[in-house]
Write a structure and sequence with these properties.
Number of strands: 0
Helix content: over 70%
Number of domains: 1
Radius of gyration: 18 Å
Number of helices: 4
Order of helices and strands: HHHH
Structural class: mainly alpha
Length: 115
């Protein structure tokens, strides 16, 4: 993998946890709206919507660059629509990103040694 692939994985990883937190806060706000006079759903809905759109854009970029199988890409998308799935996606992506960076640095070191 190259550094652009590692960057795509890193961007997806960095947005996955905030997206999961915003989803949970939106659920809490929805319950509070129905049980109290507190209504933060419009604000949290917009925040979560923006983060979800970013997640989907970064997911598509990572899928393209990392050449994931349809099953792996589907798993990451499924994790984005589950309330706590973003936390699991972040953990999986952290490992994948570290592996991509090590592979990219190894390839760069091999190219420098050959020259």
């Amino acid at each position: 993998m190259d550094l652009k692939t590692a960057g795509a994985l890193r961007r997806l990883r960095l947005v996955s946890a905030p997206e999961a937190v915003s989803f949970l806060l939106l659920l809490v706000c929805s319950v509070l709206k129905r049980t109290t006079s507190f209504n933060a759903v419009p604000v949290m809905g917009m925040v979560h919507g923006v983060l979800f759109i970013l997640y989907v854009v970064f997911w598509a970029d990572a899928w393209h660059r990392a050449r994931w199988s349809k099953g792996r890409a589907g798993l990451y998308f499924l994790l984005s629509v589950l309330p706590t799935g973003g936390f699991f996606a972040e953990r999986m992506l952290r490992r994948e990103c570290e592996d991509a960076v090590v592979a990219a640095r190894g390839a760069a070191g091999d190219a420098a040694a050959a020259a």
